[in-house]
Known about the structure:
By secondary structure, this protein is mainly beta. Helices cover 6% and strands 32% of the residues. Strands 1, 2, 4, 5, 8, 10 and 11 form a 7-stranded mixed sheet that branches. The longest helix has 20 residues, at 2-21. The relative contact order is 0.17.
Amino acid sequence: MKLFAYILITTCFLVYFYSVNIAQNLVPNPSFEDTVNCPSGTAELTATAQWFNPTAASPDYYNACFGVLPPGSFGAGVPANDWGYQYAQDGNAYAGFVTFVSDSILSDYREYIEVKLIHPLTSSSRYYWCMYVSLLDSVDYATNNIGISLSDTLINNSTSQTVLNTNVYGNNNQVITDNINWTKINGSFIANGGEEYLRIGNFFNDIQTSVIQIQQNDRGGPSGYYYVDNVYLGETPCDDTEINLPNVFTPNNDGINDEFLINFPYERLVIYNRWGQIIFESKKEKKNWNGKNINGKDVPEGTYFYIITTKDNTYKKTLLLTR
């Protein structure tokens, strides 16, 4: 009876999970994987298909196709690039933009990314949006006010580098300070009808923006900056009941969180260090990770990257190991 109940619950979960993921996303190229060409530098949003820069500012595009450079070198790669180190939340690419600059000369400086939706929105219909963001690890400030703007016409102001005067449809009011993991932000709204262009960024001025200084004089400068990945807008809610994937692991033999546990069936788990070397692998849920490498030695504290493959999906996340 217990086995039957388990199979029934698991089947219902998989049916629900599949139904959520087949919902139409009106955002083309939502995780920036499709490219026109591999970027040769960071400020090349035109290298990713569909997305473009609506102002004279300089949002960035990062893709693993840029390649791996020697230590100390910079570029538009994933995970290592000019301004930081972050694996993609989904796939091998993401974009990035400035939300704040602490500089009187660059007051209200903003960067945005824009895309044309697959089709216009329907009047009086409710739409749901979500995206994943991560604070750049080399900037001095963290901010709130990462949100979305929509319009029925294209915005292309090639002379402005400041706050866009546009209708805000969704906004995150919490200051996001996490520069290790990806933070999901989301919301919903009722469409006026005809909205066809989506923009992402901070649509509020410096006075209206909450700022926290997290460090000083880092190479990213006196600014707030976020990577963005896996953007969604559609008539089905974002999956708030998504699988719980760990992001912190403390193998210090205190009996609490000593093993990296996955709470759902999977086919394969692979854990990599920041250099892309495999340090642990498990197939068919055979074993949990205890913080040791394939030779049985404790790995150092730091950020690791893992890929979990299930029958239907692939999950890519970062994991902070501390002792």
